[in-house]
Amino acid sequence: MIGKLEHEQELHVPASEAWDLFGTLRIGQLVAQELPQLFQSVEITEGDGGVGTVLKLTFAPGVPGPGDYKEKFTKIDNEKRIKETEVVEGGYLELGFTLFRVRFEVIEKGEESSIFKGTIEYEVKEENASNASIVSIQPVATTAELAKNYLLKNKASKEASQ
Prior knowledge:
CATH superfamily: START domain
Strand order of the largest sheet: 1-7-6-5-4-3-2
CATH topology: Alpha-D-Glucose-1,6-Bisphosphate, Chain A, domain 4
Keywords: Alkaloid metabolism
Number of helices: 3
CATH architecture: 2-Layer Sandwich
InterPro entries: Bet_v_I/MLP (IPR000916), Plant_def-hormone_signal (IPR050279), START-like_dom_sf (IPR023393)
CATH class: Alpha Beta
Domain Bet v I/Major latex protein: 1-154
Number of strands: 7
Structural class: alpha+beta
Radius of gyration: 16 Å
Organism: Sphenostylis stenocarpa
Family: Belongs to the BetVI family.
Distance between the termini: 53 Å
Order of helices and strands: EHHEEEEEEH
Number of domains: 1
Helix content: 25-40%
Shape: globular
C-alpha cells in the first residue's frame, strides 16, 4: 500500500530566508525548543546537517504515532530548495512500513513571499495496511506554522532595527 499526504503554507518572507531555516538543522532545533508537546527531543546522532545526517526524533508521551525513530537526510537540493528525510530505524519501520519519507520544499512566490510544501510519502506492507491510519500530516503542518511565525517575528525584528 502506497500513500501520500501534503500540506502547503504561505510564508510571508523571501524563499531564501525560509530555506535558511528549512534547509538546515535549525528547523529541528526550533521544533525541539518550541514544540515540547509534540517532540520530547530531536538529537543529531550522525553528521553535520548535510546529506547523510541522522536525527533521532522522540515524540512526547501521549502523542499518537510511532514513539521514536531515526531519520536520515537523503536529499538536500539548495538550488531547488528541497530536503528529504527517510526513516532508517525504529518507529514506522517497526509498524510494517517499508518507506516513510518526509520532503520539505520552499517555493518562491514573489520577491517577498514563498510557499512551504511538506509531503509525507509512505509504503506499508499489505498485512500492516491498517497502520497507514496513524500517518498524519499534522506534525508537518504544525512545524510549518511554527516556522512561519518564527520567520515573521525575525523579519519584524530586522525591519525595526533598520
